[in-house]
Amino acid sequence: MDRSQLEKLLAAVREGHVSPDDAANQLARLPYAAEAGEAVVVDPHRELRTGVPELVFGASKTPEQIAAALSALAKHNGGALATRVDADKARAVKALLPDVVIHEVPRALTLGPTPARPACAPICIVCAGTSDLPIAEEAALVSEFLGAPVTRIADVGVAGLHRLLARLDDIRKADVVIAVAGMEAALPSVLGGLVDRPMIAVPTSVGYGVSLDGLVALGGLLASCAPGITVVNIDNGVGAAVAAVKIGRLAVRP
Amino acid sequence: MDRSQLEKLLAAVREGHVSPDDAANQLARLPYAAEAGEAVVVDPHRELRTGVPELVFGASKTPEQIAAALSALAKHNGGALATRVDADKARAVKALLPDVVIHEVPRALTLGPTPARPACAPICIVCAGTSDLPIAEEAALVSEFLGAPVTRIADVGVAGLHRLLARLDDIRKADVVIAVAGMEAALPSVLGGLVDRPMIAVPTSVGYGVSLDGLVALGGLLASCAPGITVVNIDNGVGAAVAAVKIGRLAVRP
Amino acid sequence: MDRSQLEKLLAAVREGHVSPDDAANQLARLPYAAEAGEAVVVDPHRELRTGVPELVFGASKTPEQIAAALSALAKHNGGALATRVDADKARAVKALLPDVVIHEVPRALTLGPTPARPACAPICIVCAGTSDLPIAEEAALVSEFLGAPVTRIADVGVAGLHRLLARLDDIRKADVVIAVAGMEAALPSVLGGLVDRPMIAVPTSVGYGVSLDGLVALGGLLASCAPGITVVNIDNGVGAAVAAVKIGRLAVRP
Amino acid sequence: MDRSQLEKLLAAVREGHVSPDDAANQLARLPYAAEAGEAVVVDPHRELRTGVPELVFGASKTPEQIAAALSALAKHNGGALATRVDADKARAVKALLPDVVIHEVPRALTLGPTPARPACAPICIVCAGTSDLPIAEEAALVSEFLGAPVTRIADVGVAGLHRLLARLDDIRKADVVIAVAGMEAALPSVLGGLVDRPMIAVPTSVGYGVSLDGLVALGGLLASCAPGITVVNIDNGVGAAVAAVKIGRLAVRP
Amino acid sequence: MDRSQLEKLLAAVREGHVSPDDAANQLARLPYAAEAGEAVVVDPHRELRTGVPELVFGASKTPEQIAAALSALAKHNGGALATRVDADKARAVKALLPDVVIHEVPRALTLGPTPARPACAPICIVCAGTSDLPIAEEAALVSEFLGAPVTRIADVGVAGLHRLLARLDDIRKADVVIAVAGMEAALPSVLGGLVDRPMIAVPTSVGYGVSLDGLVALGGLLASCAPGITVVNIDNGVGAAVAAVKIGRLAVRP
Amino acid sequence: MDRSQLEKLLAAVREGHVSPDDAANQLARLPYAAEAGEAVVVDPHRELRTGVPELVFGASKTPEQIAAALSALAKHNGGALATRVDADKARAVKALLPDVVIHEVPRALTLGPTPARPACAPICIVCAGTSDLPIAEEAALVSEFLGAPVTRIADVGVAGLHRLLARLDDIRKADVVIAVAGMEAALPSVLGGLVDRPMIAVPTSVGYGVSLDGLVALGGLLASCAPGITVVNIDNGVGAAVAAVKIGRLAVRP
Amino acid sequence: MDRSQLEKLLAAVREGHVSPDDAANQLARLPYAAEAGEAVVVDPHRELRTGVPELVFGASKTPEQIAAALSALAKHNGGALATRVDADKARAVKALLPDVVIHEVPRALTLGPTPARPACAPICIVCAGTSDLPIAEEAALVSEFLGAPVTRIADVGVAGLHRLLARLDDIRKADVVIAVAGMEAALPSVLGGLVDRPMIAVPTSVGYGVSLDGLVALGGLLASCAPGITVVNIDNGVGAAVAAVKIGRLAVRP
Amino acid sequence: MDRSQLEKLLAAVREGHVSPDDAANQLARLPYAAEAGEAVVVDPHRELRTGVPELVFGASKTPEQIAAALSALAKHNGGALATRVDADKARAVKALLPDVVIHEVPRALTLGPTPARPACAPICIVCAGTSDLPIAEEAALVSEFLGAPVTRIADVGVAGLHRLLARLDDIRKADVVIAVAGMEAALPSVLGGLVDRPMIAVPTSVGYGVSLDGLVALGGLLASCAPGITVVNIDNGVGAAVAAVKIGRLAVRP
Question: Which of C165, E163, E224, H213 could form a disulfide with C34 if both were Cys (CB 3.0 to 4.6 A apart)?
Answer without folding.
Answer: E163
